[in-house]
Specification:
- The strands form 4 sheets. Strands 5-4-6-7 form a 4-stranded antiparallel beta sheet.
- With 357 residues, the protein is of the alpha+beta class.
- Among the domains are: 126 residues; 93 residues, Pdz3 Domain (Roll).
- The chain contains 9 helices and 10 strands.
- The protein is 49% helix and 22% strand.
- α2 packs across α8.
- It is globular and about 70 Å long.
Length: 357
């Protein structure tokens, strides 16, 4: 029963993430008066299909992606890319091809998928924060036992502002930074009696995990925050920033070699994470969905060929300078990027499968 529930939840999560992203592109295209030939959720054979207002809406078998089929004006063979259209911010023209829209309209359509992911992530986090019994602050209430952190400089009533120079807006930021410390020692910036104080070399005790590894033990507790519309909104925004910054830093860690490609996970790994979340309850499922949708939005904005972020670079150049990068160059780069991404997905999928064998 648990496996069936995991499968259903995984399909629902994947499907909703794709639906939200593609719906952003679709609504932006409609807002700009751009014709959408097909709005598809999933790949492979069509399960359901219906046409309305000139757009074919399709649900396909594999819910691991989707697309909006936008029309472009045909070009004669050997014809150079057309000059950029006159710049305009008026979104009033109806029924035009995607290539006939202004650069800024096309920029808006491409960016809208990620923006919709961010909006969905914020909404899910808002639901989670509203469901919390108590909101947590960053102000230390007391210490547990003979706390090493107190002995090395922290005090009651200290408000934690930063750890190792990284600003912290919620306790999850603090915990994330502490997990990245070496030798279980960190530098704190705190607000103490109205003054910003630097507390260097704060140490923490360790506890042994089941696998024998030593992990840091956070030996202080923080005050709660009274819930109100203002505090809930601020906490939700802080959680969103925490998710986004953690994801961005993960990409940076991968780029600089701090983490290896073998630590990446694909669809199989995500299903495993969904399985664990289902066992813990609906809050963990929603938290995972929020993480995945923010991750999808940020990933699509990376300036990597075949992703939305790469297209946005070309459109920004066109919108500012009026110069259109030749289509054959864009196509070649996007094809190479797509091949690389497909290889990466295959690699991490095989890696995930190997972990469970």
């Amino acid at each position: 029963m648990t496996n069936l529930l995991t499968l259903l939840v995984a399909v629902l999560v994947f499907g909703l993430l794709v639906l939200v992203h593609e719906l952003g592109h679709f609504l932006a295209a409609r807002r700009c008066g751009i014709r959408v030939e097909e709005f598809s959720i999933g790949f492979g054979p069509a399960l359901l299909s219906r046409e309305k207002n000139g757009t074919r809406f399709t649900l396909r078998l594999v819910p691991l992606g989707g697309y909006n089929l936008l029309t472009a004006p045909p070009q004669e063979e050997g014809e150079e890319a057309r000059p950029a259209p006159a710049r305009s911010r008026a979104f009033t023209m109806q029924g035009k091809d995607f290539g006939e829209a202004t650069a800024w309209q096309r920029f808006f359509v491409i960016a809208a998928g990620a923006l919709m992911n961010f909006a969905a992530g914020f909404l899910i986090l808002l639901i989670l924060v509203c469901g919390q019994e108590v909101l947590t602050s960053r102000v230390i209430y007391d210490f547990t036992g003979a706390a090493a952190s107190r002995a090395s400089g922290l005090r009651e009533e200290d408000e934690i502002l930063a750890v190792n120079g990284s600003p912290c807006f919620i306790m999850e930021d603090v915990l994330y930074e502490l997990q990245r410390t070496q030798n279980h020692t960190a530098d704190f910036t705190v607000l103490r009696e109205g003054r910003v104080v630097q507390v260097k070399g704060v140490t923490f005790d360790t506890v042994a995990a089941e696998n024998g590894a030593q992990t840091m033990r956070v030996d202080f507790r923080v005050y709660g925050i009274q819930k109100s519309a203002r505090t809930v909104t601020r906490q939700t925004f802080a959680y969103f920033c925490y998710y986004a910054r953690s994801i961005l830093r993960s990409f940076v860690d991968l780029a600089v070699g701090r983490v290896g490609i073998n630590e990446l996970s694909g669809p199989v790994g995500v299903v495993s994470a969904v399985n664990q979340a289902v066992r813990y309850g609906w809050r963990d499922v929603l938290a995972l969905a929020a993480l995945l949708t923010v991750n999808l939005g940020i990933f699509n904005l990376l300036p990597i060929p075949a992703l939305d972020g790469f297209k946005l670079l070309f459109l920004a150049v066109e919108g500012v300078s009026g110069y259109v990068v030749p289509q054959r160059i864009q196509n070649a780069l996007n094809t190479a990027g797509m091949a690389l991404l497909l290889w990466l997905m295959l690699f991490v999928t095989m890696q995930d499968i190997t972990k469970f064998l």
